[in-house]
Write a structure and sequence with these properties.
single chain, Alpha-Beta Plaits
Amino acid sequence: MAIQRIRVTYGRRGPIKHISHLDMIRMWQRAFRRAGLPIAQSEGHTPRPRFSLASPLAVGVTAEAELMDVYLRRRVSPFYFLKKLTPQLPEGIEIREANDAPMDWPSLQSQVQKAEYLVTVEAGPGSGDIEAAIHRLLDQTAIPWEHRRDKEVRRYDLRAQVHGMWLEEERADGLVLGMLLKADPSGSGRPEQVVAALGLPASPKAVHRTKLILAPPPRKAAARR
């Protein structure tokens, strides 16, 4: 039985960006086990450490403010939690903070609404060209899109997944685009698809998730915090 919920903010950089979401879950499971923390277990025939990641990171994407909720069967201070867990993490995973979260808040996954990215694309069009392309995309009311995966074809409106976009920086070797994309339980925007919709010929050189934006917590829970 869980009696405490700790919300962790962490970053992911370096070679570990190439592991899958399932491997990320296994990495956290191993780290919790080695840390000796009193992690609550799920119910059922094969109990597992009870924790949840806010939103899966695609392979190859780095991040600086990912969120995870960890449930404990015995109370510990966030300081003790970090002290025990941090030495067990592989290079490239860095915990930035850990704080108590109310037990009666909705699930972390259900609270995620948007994600902010910095996307690096190859040098080519000048800043004027790319800014014009951004304005054209944002001015559209709908962008019919198809996403193929194996034999499945999913059709949807890509424009509905883009909440905002801007030119963050112009470098000698490329441009850095800022994107605010949909990331709720009904679906998530994909930076590489937005790059393609801009008419750029190549896939992004790098994708970095800077922020996850959550729905406001319930007033009752927020008042007790």
